[in-house]
Amino acid sequence: MTALTLSTSSAATVRADAVVVGAAKGAKGVVVAPGAEAVDKAFGGKLAAVLETLGASGAEGEVTKLPAADGIKAPVVLAVGLGDAPAKGESYDHEALRRAAGSAARALAGAKKAAFALPVEYAGAAAAVGEGALLGAYTFTAFRGDANGKGTKGRKADAKSAPLGEATVLGGKPRDKEFKAAAARAQVLAAEINRARDLINTPSNALDPKQFAAQAQAAAKEFGLTVEVLDEKALKKGGYGGLMGVGQGSEAPPRLVRIAHTHADAERTLALVGKGITYDSGGISLKPAGHNETMKCDMSGAAAVFAAVVAAARLDLPVNVTGWLALAENMPSGAATRPGDVLTMYSGKTVEVLNTDAEGRLVLADALTRASEESPDAIVDVATLTGAMVLALGHRHFGIMANDDAFRTSIHEIAEEVGEDSWPMPMPGHLRKGMDSPVADLANMGERMGGGLVAGLFLKEFVGEGIPWAHLDIAGPAFHEGAPWGYTPKGGTGSSVRTLVRLAERTAEGDLG
Questions:
Q1: CA 68 → CA 78, 165, 169, 305, 381, distances in Å?
Q2: What are the phi and psi torsion angles at 318 (to 5°)?
Q3: What are the tens digits of pLDDT across the range 442-493?
Q4: 435-463: buried (b, 16+ CB within 10 Å) or exposed (e) per residue?
Q5: Does residue 197 carry a catalytic annotation?
Q6: 3-state SS assignment for residue 12
Q7: What is the SS3 assignment for 27-96?
């Protein structure tokens, strides 16, 4: 992973392959952002004019490279757009800094070191720049033939595609406790988001439920977490009808993983539940052509939960955080659950399966019931649950539903604080009737319109009485199929990890909303 360092060196004298400066949209054209004063001076105070001549506008994510002027040790200056310049007396938004640093890091692939001379007046801004750079530099090469640098079948490794080696945040004070802590947190957060991305990007033939569970066990050993894995025998014996019902059509049997960070000073417990469908064919209700190719990403919720628990441990947060990974592969076979079958869930409730492609709610239901038995102070589940949520909110926002309005509002505010786009969604009671079944306690499908809300209402049925609960449907932002932008790569994004970690921090502080 890219190294992150802090430095008080001047942007003109720092030794690096490139120095990154910020450009923004001002009232009269491009303006150079704070942090780049020394670079601007080397250009005779005309850096903004030079950038405009080269066609730069300061638009968000815009990247302009130019040779460094005399007096600058780095050979290249890279100007990255920050969007609209803030009003006088105001600071640049953290998310704007994060995205700009990410764009710059992507543009500097292959470089050994880049110095980021962006506005970092205080530790939080330095952390945002560091996060953006580390996330923007991410690459997934585990399955490339040249990943080991030796090439394969005559192909040479491409050094230019290697991630940026080191990101140095200028203006960051390496001996200041606040800056050091902010940088350390940024490193942990980025590492765990990238862990989630790696898991999401791993093809399903290399990440079935058993293999995912093994990764959780390895991380638990490395970071001092407790872990318990229920295999298919334990799940069948324990009555986990949702997990077994979804997983029984696959040769790779399901798993339920409990991975927990505990702290001696903790006064509260947060339970996180993640949907971990390592491949989703739709089961007997087979997905149509064109909808199967990215279904390795249907375990993004479990990846986010796993990463958040590890981050809580690495940050030594004084809160207990328990992750529940509901892992299964949804495949069609002679043993698969059929539409019309009735499953007896871990809670004892029976569910008529009207559509085997509505499987995520079934595995989550068992995990939610099991998590509720430990009486945590709050439960949050995360899932790539419904296409309906993508239709409602698009590809960049996740939806938030909850059984407690204050808790839903708190999570929405946290997501906005950390730079993750989200939107609070309702849970209309009248939609519950659509899940009534003539043969079971409820069906796994209801009204087609408002399908994302129906899924939330289904999950609510399996949450313990009196426990604040929220559901994050990350179906839109979990997997990015377009061109990279900001610090968002093509493929797995690690959506919701930042929100979950900040929620754990707030819980440790006694603020659950």
A1: 9, 20, 19, 44, 49
A2: -80, 60
A3: 999 999 999 999 999 999 999 999 999 999 999 999 999 999 999 999 999 9
A4: bebeebbbbbbbeeebbbbbbbbbbbbbb
A5: no
A6: coil
A7: CCEEEECCCCHHHHHHCCCCHHHHHHHCCCCCCCCCEEEEECCCCCCCCEEEEEEEEECCCCCCCCCHHH
Rounded to whole angstroms, how far apart are CA atoms 435 and 431? 8
Closest CA relative to residue 459, chosen from 330, 326, 331: 326
Can you spell out the DSSP letters for 292-311? STTGGGGGHHHHHHHHHHHH
Question: And the tokens for 261?
Answer: 């960070």
Task: Give first-to-last CA distance, the chain, whole Å.
Answer: 35
Q: How many CA atoms lie within 13 A of 141 on its CB side?
A: 16
Phi-psi region of 143 (alpha: psi -120 to 50; beta: other; left: phi over 0): alpha
Residue 161: its pLDDT value, please?
Answer: 77
For residue 252 the two structure tokens come to 């790779």
The residue type found at 422 is S
Residue 304 amino acid letter: A
Q: Which residues contact 440 (CB under 8 A, 6 or more apart)?
A: 342, 350, 351, 352
Determine contact, residues 428/453, Cβ cutoff 8 Å.
Answer: yes
Residue with tokens 């001996």: 175
For 444, which DSSP code?
S
Measured between alpha carbons, how far is 82 from 36 in angstroms, rounded to an integer? 13
The model's pLDDT over 195-208, given as tens digits with 9 standing for 90+, comes to: 999 999 999 999 99
Instruction: Match 């014996």 to its residue by tokens.
Output: 237
Residue whose C-alpha is closest to residue 64's, from 20, 95, 94, 122: 20
Do residues 385 and 282 make contact, with C-beta atoms less than 8 angstroms apart? Answer: no
Rounded to whole angstroms, how far apart are CA atoms 500 and 322? 12
d(CA 248, CA 334): 10
Find how far residue 409's CA is from the centre of its chain: 20
* Catalytic residue, candidates 113, 361, 408, 506: 361
Longest dimension (CA), the chain: 80
β 18-26/29-32 pair status = antiparallel
361 classed as catalytic: yes
Does residue 152 surpass a pLDDT of 60? no
Q: Catalytic one among 287, 349, 460, 490?
A: 287
